[in-house]
Amino acid sequence: MDRSITQAQVGDGIPDRTATDGKNGLAPTVKGRPFLWGLLLVALCLSVFVGSQPNRSNPYVHFVFQAQAWMDGQTSIPTHVKWSSTSPGDDYQDIMPILDSNGTDTNRGIIPFPPLPTWVLLPFVAIWRLSTNQQLLATIFGAIDVGIAFWMLGFLPVRPAIRWFAALFLGLGSVLWYASAIGSTWFWAHIVAVGCLLLAVGLALSVDREAAQPRPVSEAVPTLKRLEWPGGWRSFLLLAALGALAGALIQLAGAGVSAASLTGLGIAMGLVAAALAGAVAGRASAVAPIVVTVAVAAGLPMLLILGAHSTMFVTIADIVLLLMILSMILLGGRKNGAVDRGFNALAVALTRPEAIQVAAGLMFGLAVTARLTILFGFPFFLLVGGGGTWLRRGLLAGAGAAVPLIALLVFTYASTGHVFNPAYEYLYRLEVNYPLGYNPDWSIADIRYVPQNLVIMFGELPRFMPNFPAIFPVDSGTGLCSAIGSSRGLFDATCPIALPDARGLSILLTSPAFVFAALAWLPARLKQLDRATVGATLAVCAIAFVNLMHFSQGWVQFGYRFSNDFVPFALILVALGASRIRQLWPFVALVLLSVLVNLWGVIWGVTLGW
């Protein structure tokens, strides 16, 4: 079998001896033709995404308004101003109004969505303010997601052709295409989350090259045999301290402590998480990814927000930045000087296997701050990544993920007065009476919703020969095919052959290449498994099950958009499944069929104004 990477021959419980460039624990940089093929794929998807939707405006830009509110020093958004000149009048969907002590609407509201999608928009909103084109950015970031997927797949033992077509499947054969073309609030969150999660998975795979190598079952799954606690008593005490602080945070939030006090506790928890990473890795350099991520992901947006309120702050920041640049220019020219040694040491620290596993956890945690249910995919990082043993991998990734998750809790409390956003429950009580099969006696996430949602996920079909263009299950609105002599057409909005069901469609119908995920388990018949397959399967099943318990599976959509929450893990299974059969053509055929189905869905979504 052709392989796109060199496989190291190590097993779970054996220290990593990853194939590297001799300087660090990260894979060698992709050079030559694969890199050009990746660029071509990104350019192809970008052109398709942009061309799919000629109308660059949509009324659902909650994150743009949230970013502008942050720039204005507010955590809530205004609810009585026009968001879009093309708005149909329901700009304020999915917003919980803030009431004063008398129960009067304050004309401000809270959005229920996690903050990372807003955070990503901050640099753009700082320039274009409320004119920021979220939909256009969705096409760009969606194409970048495909490029990240191509990079991630390069760490799997698959042929170059499978790598390319698997990435194409993500970009044009899954509902990521529809999300990128539409780019409204809910889809923008998916696009941001998919990119972060692909980075997390790719980083973990990059320092665990034999994770996808089938081995005897006893070697491919975690065991308690010869269990040793990594980092000794120090890491154990730090983990216990982190748990105690988390309990204190919940208790203090329930008691109504000030946001400043809770922020201080959150910072302390972040420092403990960083210390835990260093203790488990056995070297302080494992903390480097946390330092860099906090500096970039938190520092730059904070500079933008503070700069919006103080011209003096901007001036001081510009002077400091200029002095730093001049210092690096003057000192960096010295061979083996302090600047060169510092950058070299940072590069080595960031590229050690343990540090990369911490970085994978950080990116995973960031993905959760865009889509909460991704949290249940963490078992993948117990089985795949740098660290050598499942417990060491999990602690390193967990320490990295803890930092953005702690920040999420603190931010939610500061902006809503609760650790868990109350807008979710408010919206459930608002939408539960929609004629979509919801039950007001059940909770927002209830296991009793699973059976009916499984039908949407795997069995929902288009509406064939429809008589009404309704987005509800019941027929309503202006009748179709009412003109004398009218005949049905493939894309005739007045008399269509079939329309997508607004509740969603079966993922096996919209993306039939997903069937190759099951073939990743072919080695099991020989009593062999690989950790990547087991880990990815656990992640897909866990995320999907939690999503299925949610009352809504998305609405006014093509396909099953919740599949974006687990598609980076599913993509591993699809690529491995395609590599474990002799012929390439069945995979290519189903990928192209997936592209055609999604083309049909995107055209209809744009035509119907979804």
In short:
The strands form three sheets. A three-stranded antiparallel β-sheet has the order 1-3-2. A two-stranded antiparallel ribbon has the order 4-7. A two-stranded antiparallel ribbon has the order 5-6. The chain is mostly helical and 610 residues long.
Walkthrough of the structure:
The strands form 3 sheets. This protein has a 3-stranded antiparallel sheet. It has a two-stranded antiparallel sheet with strand order 4-7. It has a two-stranded antiparallel sheet with strand order 5-6. 56% of the residues lie in helices and 3% in strands. It has helices at residues 33-52, 62-71, 116-128, 134-153, 160-172, 176-182, 185-206, 217-220, 232-254, 259-281, 288-307, 311-332, 338-350, 353-368, 379-383, 390-416, 423-431, 450-459, 507-510, 516-519, 531-549, 567-579, 585-607; strands spanning 77-78, 96-99, 105-110, 215-216, 463-464, 498-499, 528-529. Among the domains are: 62-131, no CATH class; 232-425, no CATH class. The two termini are 44 Å apart. The radius of gyration is 25 Å and the shape is globular. The chain is mostly helical.
